[in-house]
Design a protein that fits this description.
- Strands 4-3-2-1-6-7-8-9-5 form a 9-stranded antiparallel beta sheet. Strands 13-12-11-16-17-18-19-15 form an 8-stranded antiparallel beta sheet.
- It contains 8 helices and 19 strands.
- It is α+β, with helices and mostly antiparallel strands and 392 residues long.
């Protein structure tokens, strides 16, 4: 290495070291006694906060979080529910964040820490506002190189600080959403029917009450069903289902959507309309309950047949009471036992209906963007589920 290059390297190194000294220690002696909680007002009113604005570089509000009587919501996503744990973690971190050390109070040095005003052309931080509360807005800057804390500055103060907490403040609204849509394993599914827009129908059903495998119905003559894993992937379509985006549902669903029916072991029916739009894969759900007491079947899925066993739960025409229980009641049981059995069946049906109404109220107002792999699993064709034809 030449002497000139070595000299230049030394100068650059010393300059960087000087900057660190200026940012880290120039005011430590003067403000060391000022260390404490960054936002004292937050500590007293954290349970009263119902509004948080996340302001992105440039000064525009990127994420608007609002709390109603039920939960936190993200207004940029039509008021869909926010990830409660993420919001609470943010408030917890801010309430507990201690000023571990004073940093620069010189605006010319703010950009080194990412705590310059958000309207600045070179802004990189995020500002947190608390509308309706007398809590100072705070700019969260870069993470300290050690990874142990974030730089921060209250907007009303010139002094910046190193905190003893790393404060994560994403500016993408999707990151703040409750990502989990539902989690129903294949073990809780008895049947799945897929109806494509062109009329092709695929139907898989549990091989037996205690059999974890699914069989493919209506296999074409001369063909054989393919590997069980393909059918199980369909039956697992509602397991660990996480959204990648969400929108308010605007009916109707597209005409080219595929429609699926999932029948659960507890009598709930999930109808899923699934389609591709704008390079994303979307699904809309409606949920209903199968009334075993009256023999009502699952909701219509185009030309989809009633679920297996639905006919068996129909009202017994030979039952003079009309309650559908004569075929199941013990011949020696008296009127009291029959009434108790009927009441139990009706209570179960009422509970299923209540569950269906609650789940439908949560899901049906929305369409969810789902991963491409999940979309591919749920839109299989019959040919995809069969063994390949052997060439002669």
């Amino acid at each position: 290495m030449s002497r000139n290059r070595f000299t230049l390297l030394v100068v650059v190194t010393l300059t960087a070291a000087l900057a660190v000294i200026v940012l880290s220690r120039s005011v430590d002696d003067q403000h060391g006694a000022s260390a404490g909680v960054l936002l004292p007002a937050l500590e007293q009113s954290v349970n009263e906060i119902a509004a948080i604005d996340v302001v992105a570089p440039g000064g525009t509000i990127a994420v608007t979080l609002r709390r109603d009587d039920e939960r936190w919501r993200v207004l940029e996503k039509d008021g869909y529910e926010a990830d409660f744990a993420r919001v609470i973690e943010l408030l917890r971190s801010l309430r507990q964040a201690q000023k571990a050390g004073a940093r620069t109070a010189n605006p010319e040095w703010y950009s080194k820490l990412g705590v310059q005003p958000l309207a600045s052309d070179d802004a990189t931080g995020r500002r947190l506002d608390f509308p309706g509360q007398e809590i100072a807005s705070v700019i969260i800057g870069q993470t300290d190189p050690t990874g142990n804390g974030s730089y921060a500055r209250r907007v009303e103060d010139a002094q910046s600080w190193l905190l003893d907490e790393v404060i994560e403040v994403p500016v993408d609204p999707v990151v703040w959403l409750e990502r989990g849509v539902m989690d129903i394993p294949a073990e809780d599914i008895t049947e799945v029917v897929i109806r494509h827009a062109d009329g092709e129908m695929i139907r898989i059903a549990r091989a037996g009450d205690n059999d974890p495998e699914f069989v493919l119905r209506n296999v074409p003559e001369g063909r054989q069903a393919g590997p069980p894993r393909l059918r199980r992937a369909i039956a697992s379509g509602l397991r660990g289902l996480n959204l990648e985006d969400v929108r308010r549902h605007q009916p109707p669903v597209p005409a080219d959507a595929a429609r699926l029916l999932f029948v659960t072991t507890d009598g709930l029916n999930f109808v899923a309309d699934i389609f591709e739009r704008e390079a994303r894969y979307w699904v809309h759900f409606t949920v209903s309950a199968e009334n075993a007491a009256t023999g009502a079947t699952a909701p219509s899925v185009g030309d989809v047949d009633a679920p297996d066993g639905a006919e068996e739960t129909a009202v017994n025409p030979d039952d003079e009471t009309g309650d559908g229980l004569a075929a199941n009641a013990d011949a020696t049981s008296g009127p009291t036992e029959a009434i108790e059995e009927r009441d139990a069946v009706e209570q179960q049906a009422a509970q299923r209906l209540a569950n269906a109404v609650a789940v439908d109220a949560r899901l049906s107002p929305w369409i969810f963007a789902i991963p491409e792999r999940r979309y591919n699993d749920l839109t299989k064709r019959m040919e995809d589920l069969l063994e390949p034809v052997e060439e002669e």
